[in-house]
Amino acid sequence: MRWKFILYLIAANVLWAGNYLAGRVLRFSMGPFTLNGVRWIISAVVLWLIVRKRGEIVPLLQEWKAFLLLGFIGMFLFSSLTYWGLTMVPAGEAGLLSGFTPLAVLVAGFVIAQDKVRLWQWLMVAVSIGGEILLLGGGASTQTGSIFGAVVLIFAALSWGVYTALGRRYRYRFSPLVLTTGAAVWGAIPSALLGIWNLSTHPVTLSINSGLALLYVSTMASVVAFMMWSAGVNRLGSGTAAPYMNLLPVFTALLAVLLLHETLSATQLEGGLIVVAGAVGAGFSRTVPVTVKESQTSMLE
């Protein structure tokens, strides 16, 4: 049975990697902010139905400040920046840049949640930043647009770190599912408003393939993957599950090469590997705060 939950952890990362590919493909069919708005409207509805089926209650009005704050940073800001970045940066490179996210969670946890961070972990943060610099200097990132897109994706990682640190404040007040659903509902509002504005410059032109990609990001990547990761963490523990989050950059780069026929330069691969190595090295210490995927897990336990 243990292998079953390990497969859940691996499958969740594959589904999250697919989100980068789908976001890259959908840039031809709609604006990045419209994509994010549609995604979270659908995801919020699905999550709400799951909550109702489980008999839980989401205090949307009573706790609107908490849910709006988390939804704005996690669902609106993080996802909007991610999809925006994917209009300028290939999916494979974006996946490698996502390797910086665990370090962003660590830093945000230190600043916001006052988590203790050891010297070794700070050294690993420095290593990953070095990898980011190397990654920015290789391949497509030498183009001005791609450099800006890579910076946008780094800010997306930082916003997820802030979301994670803030979400820890409420982990004893709400169940993970309720917390995620409330954040998704409130986060869908600014996402939808910006998405409507985005229609003026990027009209929607859906095909069968892009429609399937949109359905994928709204269900498989937003709901199913989180629930699979949650099941794995609940059974194996966050300490065992945490290293699996470093599979995301690997799967994203691999799928981008195989399915989208993208290419990655040797410099980009080296930079991405250094980023992942820094994240893995930081994870060796038991004082590391809740990881990015653990925070994502907490959303749907």
Task: Pick out its properties.
mainly alpha, disordered C terminus, 13 helices, 301 residues, 74% helix, globular
Description:
The protein is mainly α. It has one domain. It contains 13 helices and no strands. It is globular and about 45 Å long. The protein starts with a helix and ends with a helix. Belongs to the EamA transporter family. Keywords: Cell membrane, Membrane, Transmembrane, Transmembrane helix. InterPro entries: AA-Vitamin_Transporters (IPR050638), EamA_dom (IPR000620), EmrE-like (IPR037185).
Sheet with most strands: none
Shape: globular
Q: What is the straight-line distance between the termini?
A: 19 Å
Give the total of domains.
1
Helix vs. strand class? mainly alpha
Q: Report the β-strand fraction as a percent range.
A: under 5%
- Give the proportion of residues in helices: over 70%
GO cellular component, one term: plasma membrane
Membrane topology: Multi-pass membrane protein
Subcellular location: Cell membrane
Family: Belongs to the EamA transporter family.
Helix and strand arrangement:
Elements lengths: L1 H24 L6 H23 L9 H23 L4 H7 L3 H11 L7 H18 L7 H24 L8 H23 L9 H29 L1 H4 L5 H13 L6 H17 L9 H7 L3
Helix pairs in contact: 1-4, 1-9, 1-11, 2-3, 2-8, 2-9, 3-7, 3-8, 4-11, 5-7, 6-12, 9-13
